[in-house]
Amino acid sequence: MTAIAAAPGNPGIAQVAEVRAVDPASAEAVVGAARDFRADLVVIGPEVPLVLGIADAVRAAGIACFGPSAAAARIEGSKAFAKDVMAAAGVRTAHSEIVDHPGELDAALDRFGPTWVVKDDGLAAGKGVVVTADRSAARDHGAELLEQGHPVLLESFLDGPEVSLFCLVDGETVVPLLPAQDHKRVGDGDTGPNTGGMGAYTPLPWLPPETVTEIVDEVVKPVAAEMVRRGVPFSGLLYAGLAIGQAGPAVVEFNCRFGDPETQAVLALLDSPLGTLLHATATGTLAEVEPPRWKDGAAVTVVLAAENYPGRPRTGDVISGTETPADGAANTEVLHAGTSLRADGALLSAGGRVLNVVATGGDLAEARANAYARIAGIKLPGSHFRTDIGLAAVEDRISVPTRV
């Protein structure tokens, strides 16, 4: 018998799992819930519990856990730590500087540009980054972060299209999943501020297959080996965000967990049991399981966001149209993110990114058509979504730069 519990959960996952009101940032609460449920495997999704060491507590309780230790989760929790690991591993990434005092900001900005990349050195849910050709905007963001007590990371701008590659990592064993591409800007044509992600697609028709092998061999495996050498082996999901430029792949960032919205598209094409892969990773036996199998075709996920997102979102509005329509909806699913239920059973918005519509198809064009046909039937006052997820790839407007 197989059973799944989710904590804290939402109305969407409640359709397939038992939902428990557990604070995911409390080691005592998570371990207690896992013991009460008699869990064989605990999967920790968000970055905050991982950085806080919840995975350590679960493993200390004798329960298999998918997710890195607090020490290994620093690969996402501290961009400075990630840069140090990459430097030791010989991995290409942007030149960077840490600024931790307002009096140093202007001089540091003068050493970068004409495009500035300004990041929060800690966790920022994908929204602590400003990429701009406007020095004043770069300075304003850096000054705001410093005022909040957050160190600022300045980086040189990396050219080329971006790729997201999820890899299951068990020490030095690395198993890549399908490459995907996220759409971070809030508006069509990559306009407006950065978000946590407005949509994604996989596979990438413009990315040569050998590039994935290159990323694994020259980026992920060296980083995994360096983590082992430091005594903080990585166990879980290591996400590499990369820019594919003229000099080859270069790392933009690492995350220590599955990322939204790429995960939805990637897992829509997974033909192997996900639980088997996660359990093998958690128990140190990843090298013994067969590589993931994948369905043919393509997958697209489109995010429906609340009014004013990525600013303070409007919440509490009724959502309609999430049910499968009477005439069916070809190869689509609606996955919940920021939702809640009212006492009368009405579905309400409860966050910035409210829903994901995930669709598959024989090719990327068909997957896109299926996704947008489904999202057109969902109603949420003031909501918005990008209409161009995967469009540049369908129209053959993306290419990998010629190597120099």
Describe it.
By secondary structure, the protein is an alpha+beta fold. Helices cover 28% and strands 25% of the residues. It contains twelve helices and 20 strands. It has helices spanning 27-37, 47-51, 54-60, 70-77, 79-89, 105-110, 135-147, 209-229, 262-268, 274-282, 364-375, 391-394; strands spanning 5-6, 18-19, 42-43, 65-66, 96-99, 116-120, 129-132, 152-155, 162-170, 173-182, 185-187, 191-194, 199-202, 235-245, 248-255, 298-305, 332-336, 339-341, 347-349, 353-361. The strands form six sheets. An eight-stranded antiparallel beta sheet has the order 15-14-9-10-13-16-20-17, sandwiched between helices. Strand 6 and strand 7 (129-132) form a beta hairpin. Helix 1 packs across helix 3, helix 4 (70-77) crosses helix 5 and helix 5 (79-89) packs across helix 8 (209-229). It starts with a strand and ends in a 10-residue tail after the last helix. The mean pLDDT is 94.
Strand content: 25-35%
Radius of gyration, whole Å = 21 Å
Q: Into which percent range does the helicity of residues fall?
A: 25-40%
Q: Count of DSSP helices?
A: 12
Alpha-carbon distance between the two ends: 56 Å
Largest sheet, order of strands side by side?
A: 15-14-9-10-13-16-20-17
DSSP, total strands: 20
Shape: globular
Instruction: Calculate the mean pLDDT score and round it.
Output: 94
Structural class: alpha+beta
Q: What can be said about the biggest beta sheet? A: 8 strands, antiparallel
What low-confidence regions span 5 or more consecutive residues with pLDDT below 50?
Answer: none
